[in-house]
Amino acid sequence: MTILTPNSPTAELQALDAAHHMHPFTHGAGLRGKGARVITRAEGCWLTDSDGNRILDGMAGLWCVNIGYGREELAEAAARQMRELPFYNTFFQTTHVPAINLAARLAELAPGDLNHVFFAGSGSEANDTNLRLVRTYWHEKGQPERQVVISRWNAYHGSSVGSGSLGGMKGMHAQGGMPIPGIAHIDQPDWWSAGGDQSPEDFGLAMAKQLEDKILEIGPDKVAAFIAEPVQGAGGVIVPPETYWPEISRIVKEYGILLIADEVICGFGRTGNWFGSQTMGITPDIMTIAKGLSSGYQPIGGSILSGEVARVISDTEFNHGYTYSGHPVACAVALENLRILDEEGIVTRVREDTGPYLKNKFESLADHPLVGEAKIVGMMGSIALTPEKAARAPFAAEAGTVGLITRERCFANNLVMRHVGDRMIISPPLVISKEEIDILIERAWESLDEAHAQLERDGLM
Ligand code: PMP
């Protein structure tokens, strides 16, 4: 069989891809008709495809390449570790140096007394761990009836059966028997779409109040935990009104339930602090981490537990773990990634310099006739597309139609911007420069102009 290379012709790569490769979250037949875009190389914030196009990656891969592409140090760390100890497990009372160092470093970086790490291979696995962890915690505390985890509609917490059930994506729930029992959902604090006549502040309180209502409906002695992202990412980069998190924090405290902050996207500098919990003023009992932990260079995730949760769990044998929990190569790469984020001042730069610069430019997109609101925290932002700003009106076409048209225009202009329904999203590498931010905004504006013209031509607005 011929092994193709990055220099093979695009048509050949696409044909072999279509013949054997099943893509995640993709309509297979639809993709086969047009052929996948083949990315062959990347450097900094720029991707190269098999036709030689240079594309500005406004999404940092899948919200993960925080330090940018092409860092030799991470390749070196991986090679070094592969030579020294390519694999050993952390089951059965063994450990190894990379897992020891990474857990200790994470305990140092994480806020408050979050100081123990249970490693996983991904964010999905880590949230599966969390589901079992919180139920085991309450069992050990003598309250085994505390089983229910409350989450939010439209949340994304992963794609395995457990984490997909924790998430609130109805399209996912419709396939394969999700959600599993013991999970309940409340609404997301999306003022733009659902706030009606309420002020954002009142709406934030009302959405938080849903948590209290749900706890009372289920019975406070049956609820184990609430899970949420500090800023919801894949649900549309929903920045909550300022009243939301303080009220949620009050409620979880009042009813004594555990708070799980899913930091898979928000963690490792994305919001201008090491963790989104710090930006939003939250004190979680457990944090889910993945993505930016290794800047996507290796698959790794985990759960960071508070001293108290770790102590209770340690009183029993937790019958849970993955072959790749604390994989030595992934840990070594993550540790090197954290060193770079820290020593190069990347998180501070996002908070104090490039983040504010991007915010200023990004918010100016709200002046475009197609854009309602533009919201951004650190380096995760979204714009709401609308035919009528003042009314915050949705398009008549099926939700997502206009978002998809706009995404295609961005792609044609060599900018990766994702759409969630009719919101457009950015989450660039944290190392993006001011010059590159200017290019991103220029291309976004141009793509919006083109989408606008197309919508008018097609009678969609
Ligand atoms: N939680 C959040 C908030 C995520 O955004 C994601 C992935 N997009 C996950 C969990 C799942 O992570 P993974 O894809 O690594 O399993």
Automatic annotation (TrEMBL):
Keywords: Aminotransferase, Pyridoxal phosphate, Transferase. Pfam families: Aminotran_3. Its cofactor is pyridoxal 5'-phosphate. GO terms for molecular function: pyridoxal phosphate binding; transaminase activity. Transmembrane segments: none annotated. Belongs to the class-III pyridoxal-phosphate-dependent aminotransferase family. This is Putrescine aminotransferase. It comes from Citreimonas salinaria. The lineage of its organism: Bacteria, Pseudomonadati, Pseudomonadota, Alphaproteobacteria, Rhodobacterales.
